[in-house]
Amino acid sequence: MVKIKVLLADDQELILESLHIVLSMEEDLEIVGLAKNGEEALKACEQFKPDMVLMDVNMPVMDGVAATALIKERMPATKIIMLTSYKEVEYVLAALSHGAEGYLLKAIHPRDLAAGIRVVQAGGTLITQEMASKMIKNINRTTPPKNNEFGLSGREIEVMHKLAAGLRNQEIAEALYLSEGTVKNYISAIYSKLHVKGRREAARKARDSGILDR
To answer: Does CATH place domain 143-213 in 1.10.10.10?
Structure first.
């Protein structure tokens, strides 16, 4: 029997150990590593080359969404299932956009968790109809609008609106379900496209060109 190599990433030691114990009881699963943050998960993926990562969303140092983006960029064959609570489901949208194969709620029965791992390993996905609908809406929202002279994407315009409203990077990240690092990248792209050096200048130029009216 070829075992499915699984990496577990969660900052709560109790959850990490519980998952380890429960999944180790499955004959076809092999736990190859444990990580307590996204940075550790990335390094462990490079070291152990797992087939599957069970990725917590909220972790210190590097969150699960940012880690998913990097792992998928460097090791696209590695499959990732996000582990989330009811309150964090919106964050999963960003992870799915980076290539995660699905998500499961932390309250799931261990037997169903193991079954989910097998489904994804076989090429399936774990996305509910509700989440699929949200993904479609998200894609439509981030599609660049017509007559956009500076070439800002839909998401960059969303960030620009928050920027002009005076929100700090962390507040923008929370409002748009992004990591703070991703927000900084968007802001840098906005400055570059608008040919400005700061928030006030960006907001003024965006208002003058009508971008903030969209």
So the answer is: yes
- pTM score above 0.70: no
**Across 65-78, average pLDDT:** 93
CATH superfamily name and code, 4-136? Response regulator (3.40.50.2300)
Span 134-158, pLDDT tens digits = 666 665 555 555 446 788 877 888 8
The three-state DSSP-derived secondary structure of the chain is CCCEEEEEECCCHHHHHHHHHHHHCCCCEEEEEEECCHHHHHHHHHHHCCCEEEEECCCCCCCHHHHHHHHHHHCCCCEEEEEECHHHHHHHHHHHHCCCCEEEECCCCHHHHHHHHHHHHCCCCECCHHHHHHHHHHHHHCCCCCCCCCCCCHHHHHHHHHHHCCCCHHHHHHHHCCCHHHHHHHHHHHHHHHCCCCHHHHHHHHHHHCHHHC
